[in-house]
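Batch manifest, entry 17 of 40.
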Amino acid sequence: MLALTTLIPSKCETLGGATSCSPHLQVIMFFISLYLVAFAQGCHKPCVLAFGADQFDASDPYECTAKSSFFNWWYFGMCSGPMVGIFVLSYIQEYLSWGLGFGIPCAVMGLALVIFLLGTMTYRFPKKTEDKSAFVRIGQVFVEAARNWRTTQSTVSLEEQGCETFTRQGSPQFRFLNKALLSPDGSNESGPVCSIDEVEEAKSVLRLIPIWASCLAYSTASSQQTTLFTKQGATMDRSIGPNFEIPAATLQSFIGLSIVILIPIYDTVLVPLMRSVTKKPFGITMLQRIGTGIFISIVLMVVSALVESKRLKTAIEYGLIDDPGAVIPMKIWWLLPQYVLVGAADVFAIVGMQEFFYDQVPSELRSIGLALYLSVSGVGNFLSSFLISIVEKITARDGLDDGWISDNMNQGHVDYFYYLLAGISAVAFVIYLYAANSYVYNQRRACDVAK
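Output type: structure tokens
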């Protein structure tokens, strides 16, 4: 459909010597296509990663350990394709044909579907082990805990003490959910509606919320790579040689390139090195990996602010502040460090979130867990747009200009906005450290206990 939007002729009319075109059909098809992409990714991304990880046998020690590497190499593949796509297709779309630029990925996706279907007979499918769905089990725990909310804590404590299994397996967090262990009448005569395992399952889902919320600042900061970073690059010297100029969006390919380079280093060098230090089979824990990525994102925002300050200083020196279309005599490669830092942060935070939200939810909800990881990115992008709108209104002087974020980049102060994001990320990092330090891992499998 995206390719067709570039091929359908616009309806043009000539009135009084002026020609006006009404591309209503193209606009309708274009937005339908974008919503289809969003819908397709919502169906595909969380399910395909969970399905891939389910191909490993959790009861086999080798496959259980290899699953952690799978998340690294999965993301390696997911970044290799876009890296080539951004680098090649952005050139084709800008200098050759938008129809060809959309048609090529259409053909590639058709080939990918054929390859996926060829493996149908070899895939592993996990067996359902519970009669009730995970949604019903977890929902019932919250319902029963709400019904027994008037029950005193001493009664619940006595119930816990009388249960040897709970004393051995139960976690001390979110003890209000332990009220679901009581019978509907608040006594122990008729037996509880919910089991200890179901209560612990509900707690494991609830424990994810603080981690999810504290990761939003990371996504808000990294979302600038496709917006303000590109807008910066469009104002800079993009020439390579006397006759070639690279599109500003091409630098996004260096994010994928840095990921493609760093993931093998992480998996083959850093993990064995950290394993020898920490004595853990995976080198560092999932939460430590995510935290490292969040810290790198703070550094990313500071570096981005410093580069933007340099760009604005150059514009002032050459008297180009009032010319929004001017090319700042400063090579676009100044932006390269911040794109590389985006990739480095993703290697730690994104892959860590993928593994964490897959691993720490009930087995039947793994696709939902990965959807939680994806929602970090989605909500972070919305927060970025909201924050930009707020900053524009607050920093505009008398409503006469756009303040820090201006249509004319040379008159704005995007560097201040980057410093603001660095501050927000730093606060979120402190909150994350607290949430991660108090987090209790859901230890379902032997290889998870070591993590």
